[in-house]
Amino acid sequence: MRILVTYAVQGEFTELKFPGLTGEEEVQVGYLRTGIGKVKSAFYLTEAINRAQPDLVVNMGTAGTVRHQVGDIFVCRHFIDRDMQKLTDFDMECEINSAELLARKGYCLHWQGEGICNTGDTFLTELSDVKGDVVDMEAYAQAWVCRTKNTPFIAVKYVTDIIGQNSVKHWEDKLADARKGLGEFFEALGGAG
Fold first, then answer.
1. How far apart are CA 29 and CA 17, in angstroms?
2. Which residues of 27-62 are buried (b: 16+ CB within 10 A; e: fewer)?
3. Please, what is the angle between helix 139-148 and helix 38-52, to 10°?
4. What's the maximum distance between 2 C-alpha atoms anywhere in the chain?
5. Strand, coil or helix: what is 88?
6. Do 28 and 19 touch, CB atoms closer than 8 A?
7. Cα 36 to chain center, whole Å?
């Protein structure tokens, strides 16, 4: 079992322990720093999938929110591209749900804390009408790449900031908490898929 863990910036990195998604197989974990934003993220992930052929891609990282609390963790299988959302009248796709492929493979079935991740190429600092539980700048692009490569994808996001409340400063201050919280989340998963 080969798992590729993606993260945007070095400050989000933490080494994760996967005791085995089904409790049986050996797990090999690789890491990919994608950089910030949809374009870089999609490019580097595509190259990594072509090279490593992972069985699963797990995006871990930080996110902002409008309606939840700092420290909350969301497991995302549903992704929205807020940049393309404005173009739905032109029949542009702006939502991806990765749950079906994950379920078909039997991966990540017991991962709790369901949420919707809203992705865009801007760091939101002011309240706006945002659909979803958390906002980031990479997950939708990675979900899209994984869907085109028929590779299961899931994102786990730690809330570091409340949009509209000095978000950039709060994000920087909460990176260490996010690394610790994400590490504990994955350790608590145990051995079942």
1. 8
2. bebeebebeebbebbbebbbebbeeeebbbbbbbbb
3. 40
4. 47
5. helix
6. no
7. 12
Q: Is 147 helix (H, G, I), strand (E, B) or coil?
A: helix
- On whether the CB atoms of residues 118 and 131 are closer than 8 A, the answer is yes
Cα separations (Å) of 134 from 59, 74, 90, 162? 14, 8, 25, 10
- pTM of the predicted model as reported, rounded to 2 decimal places: 0.89
The two structure tokens encoding residue 123:
């760091």
160's tokens: 């570091």
Q: Tens digits of per-residue pLDDT, 121-175?
A: 876 666 566 789 999 999 999 999 999 999 999 999 999 988 877 656 777 788 8
Residues 12, 184: contact at Cβ < 8 Å?
A: no
Q: How long a stretch of residues is the chain?
A: 193
Give 46-49 contacts, CB < 8 A, sequence gap 24+. Answer: 46/145, 46/149, 48/4, 48/6, 49/4, 49/145, 49/146, 49/149, 49/151
Pairwise CA distance, residues 44 & 32, whole Å:
8
pLDDT tens digits, one per residue of 33-75 = 999 999 999 999 999 999 999 999 999 999 998 889 999 999 9
